[in-house]
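Reopening: structure tokens for the LB5GJZVW complex, inputs below.
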Amino acid sequence: MTQAQGPLLGCIADDFTGATDLASTLVAGGMRTVQTIGVQDDAKLADIAADAIVVALKTRTVPAREAVEQSLAAHAWLRARGCGQIFFKYCSTFDSTPDGNIGPVTQALMAATETPLAIACPAFPANQRTVYKGYLFVGDVLLSESGMRNHPLTPMRDPSLVRVLQAQTDAAVGLIAHQVVARGADAVRARIAQLRAEGIGMAIADALDDEELLVLGEACADHPLVTGGSGMAMGLPANFRRQGLLPAQDATVLPRIAGRCAVLAGSASEMTNRQVARWIQDGRPAFRIDPMLLAAGEPVVARALAFAQRSIGTPLIYATGPADDVAAVQRRLGVQAAGAMIEEAMGDLARGLREQGVRHFVVAGGETSGAVVLALGVDMLQIGAPIAPGVPATVSLGTDRMGFALKSGNFGGPDFFAEAVAALAGSEKAAATGAE
Ligand SMILES: Nc1ncnc2c1ncn2[C@@H]1O[C@H](COP(=O)(O)OP(=O)(O)O)[C@@H](O)[C@H]1O
Ligand SMILES: O=C(O)[C@@H](O)C(=O)COP(=O)(O)O
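Re-run output (same inputs, fresh job):
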């Protein structure tokens, strides 16, 4: 099928799992969505029909100048492809370094899209992220009291998003409070007009549930740029449908892929720790990557691959560990160096596993997913049905097709790995029997 019109929505995501999370939301809203790994050759998309394109970048923790440069390049490419509205996706826990990158990238995209006021809302109620009076909650606690306070690369220790964003930009940051959002899209539009008149350039928006995210989405129908977590995109497909631009359709169809499955966990988040523990408790094969052995030059990757080769059943290879262990490794090796070293090992493992015939990869962690997908030379992903909120099954496009579940560190329940393997292996069984 060829593209009759340009994509309706062009998205720029600051990490790879964040990109699949957003793509999953758009697909659920009936938008055929393609995720590209960085900016791609136009020729590769020539025969692909997509209502939305999500460009996955790995810019969450790079220096702010680089994040801006890459995001502007992605914007220019999306615009050249005809995308009318632009969405900048960041983490539902507002993960940022002291220098950004949410503020600087938003400011640069505002200039590029001539947006006078950009809305900013990371709320994702299905995964227990809510925003009230500008404060971000994770479950029942403030962001700063959640596991995010110990994140290896972006520890979040201030729950006030107005304050966090204001420290990253010279645009004035305001608030669209819950009382306004609860009154509906017209009230939000009126508040935005008021904030603009006061010289405010970015506005954190409260949202406690999906209904409120739909209200915010509706209020942003004519905004050239919208920013937020994947929840903020929930209301956008309905805007296009109201304009008669998007038919009712099932956008989740994926091709079947045959082959073995492996799980790679490089996330240090609390939920991934629980998922690794559950997998081991269940007696499934698991191999731990010891960062200190890796740093000492031991053949850790080769040992892990040998383990995977002789495993009966799907192997898990993980660097995941409790916050204290991660902090100890970081003190000895340095935060960036430890992360980069483990990510490189995860990339090498992915390549080695592919040589062993693995065709399905369940990956935990945004940075880790970036490393794996890049190491495997994946250019584009087609997005399928969700395995858990924010984690769809995906299949790479191109000649060497593989299945992926790219899981944000904190997403999924304790049994997620087994659920993802079953979801991906379901397509394997279907391929073997020729079933659809
Ligand atoms: N045991 C460990 N010690 C130090 N760093 C680690 C360890 N395990 C993973 N890491 C690094 O921590 C980072 C985790 O980031 P990411 O993959 O985005 O997952 P998450 O954000 O869920 O923690 C990666 O750079 C990874 O290489
Ligand atoms: O919005 C979210 O929470 C996710 O989509 C996401 O970006 C998570 O990133 P990682 O925790 O680094 O996987």
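Residues 15, 17-18, 21, 91-93, 124, 229-230, 365-366, 390, 408-410 surround LB5GJZVW (ligand 2) (CB under 6 Å). The radius of gyration is 21 Å. Marking as resolved unless the reporter disagrees.
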